[in-house]
Amino acid sequence: MAKKRKQTQPVTATSGGEPAVEAKLLTDLRGMIQRTRSGVAQAVNSAQVLLYWEIGRRIHKEILGQERAEYGEQIVSTVSRR
């Protein structure tokens, strides 16, 4: 689970151009970090979905002999009635 980030005050330009350059740099770096974090989270989520699908496929094939589990038939029947 991701940690909550502390709210930080944005850096603002005072006199001269240097603080504005630093503010833009910090904004750009934060954006890069956030985009990378989002990409990593998406990759992990995709990998988990594939893992769970593969686990289900193996159980279906090797344990159930490619037959539908009895409880699965009950679920489909119940859902279709509702």
What is the CA–CA distance across the termini?
36 Å
Order of helices and strands: HH
User: What is the helix tally?
Assistant: 2
Query: How large is the share of residues in beta strands?
Result: under 5%
Pfam families: DUF1016_N
Organism: Tautonia sociabilis
Protein name: DUF1016 family protein
InterPro entries: YhcG_N (IPR041527)
Question: Could you characterize what this model shows?
Answer:
InterPro entries: YhcG_N. This is DUF1016 family protein. It comes from Tautonia sociabilis. Pfam families: DUF1016_N (PF17761). With 82 residues, the chain is an all-alpha fold. The protein has a domain of 39 residues. Helices cover 71% and strands 0% of the residues. The model has no long low-confidence stretch (mean pLDDT 83).
